[in-house]
Write a structure and sequence with these properties.
258 residues, 53% helix
Length: 258
């Protein structure tokens, strides 16, 4: 993946906002959806936008587990009514039960950021381990802060990949790192993704906006058809896996008389 130096400078001067709890905003193929928004009006707004151009990725940020539980109905309706992938970002490590609910509700990708208070580090690691057992391979992300020294960021990237967790670095916060340092982090990140065979297709709308990676030229003809087939495969596989897991959970509750 090629890196655009001009885009690094642009993102460093104006970091991309990931939205707030009550924000509803679309930028290119990404829709930021606040978890506390009223469900009906939100769906109507998204539907009008989606009719003009389909949304590739919905991003919902949950400040706490309680925010997720308030937004769970909205997640389910987004999954039911739209084709875009859903990324849930948890600012605090969620419980095992919340991770199961998040997957069952329709979240396709989950981001558990690395930068948590030190007293939450054990919970963060436990949440990552359980999320890996719930979500499909390479669907568990952990954001690495661009404020880290390049060497520290690279070590963190390698450690996450070794545990089959997808590291991601987005320029969505202020940093005093130079453009050259940022470029070195992204070069290491791209190399790690390539060696691990990470599936990037669901995240391409976000990578286009929040990273300096150059967007690949649109493929035509057979290439475009293969891209659509691959996206459909990922979506169908994820939905089938979710259905089977939810059904097994429901059956286990029934057998226990719950």
């Amino acid at each position: 993946m090629l890196i655009d130096p001009a885009k690094i400078e642009e993102l460093l001067s104006t970091p991309l906002s990931f939205g707030g709890d009550a924000e509803l905003r679309r930028q290119d193929g990404v829709f930021w959806v606040g978890s506390s928004l009223p469900v009906r009006q939100t769906l109507e707004t998204i539907y009008e936008s989606d009719c003009i151009e389909p949304t590739g990725l919905f991003i919902l940020t949950f400040e706490t587990e309680e925010h997720f539980r308030r937004g769970e109905e909205l997640v389910r309706l987004l999954k039911k009514n739209f084709r875009g992938f859903i990324l849930g970002r948890f600012c605090e490590p969620p419980s095992d039960a919340a991770l199961e609910l998040a997957y069952g509700a329709g979240i396709d990708l989950i981001d558990l950021p690395r930068e948590t208070p030190q007293n939450l580090h054990t919970r963060w690691r436990k949440a990552l381990d359980h999320a890996r057992s719930v979500f499909p391979r390479w669907s568990v992300l952990s954001s690495v802060s661009p404020r880290l020294e390049p060497e520290s960021a690279m070590v963190e990237i390698d450690a996450l990949l070794a545990n089959e967790i997808m590291p991601i670095v987005t320029l969505s916060e202020k940093t005093d790192r130079t453009a050259q340092q940022i470029a070195s982090i992204y070069e290491h990140l791209a190399g790690g993704w390539s060696r691990a065979g990470v599936a990037l297709q669901p995240l391409r709308p976000l990578l286009h906006l929040a990273t300096p990676f150059e967007a690949p030229a649109p493929r035509r003809g057979l290439g475009a058809l293969l891209d659509r087939v691959e996206e459909a495969r990922i979506r169908t596989s994820s939905d089938l896996r979710r259905h089977l897991r939810v059904r097994r959970t429901e059956e286990s509750f029934e057998s226990a008389g719950l």
